[in-house]
Sequence to fold (95 residues):
Amino acid sequence: MESEELHKMFTVGAVLDHKTKKVKQPKKKKWMGASPVRCDLCKCALDEHETWIDGVTVYGPWANMCPPCHRERGHGLGLGKGQEYDRATGMKVAG
Fold:
């Protein structure tokens, strides 16, 4: 088995189809609603940034944040923390 295939097998979310012996990668996540226009914290226009974060804040509730606000008042990225989305495509890029 090639090392790239082996690596894919152990990637989180990858599934080996035992019938075809092929590795299936999980579908990429996409923001389903209308893209947010402004940061919920500083109110800047989110189109000024390449990405935005839908994440939990140090205050408790979740918010759509610009990257600078997330660095200052977010709790990181990942399950239960937040997801980062590409502004142009709405595709999840981290988290």
Residues 6-12 have pLDDT under 50 and may be disordered.
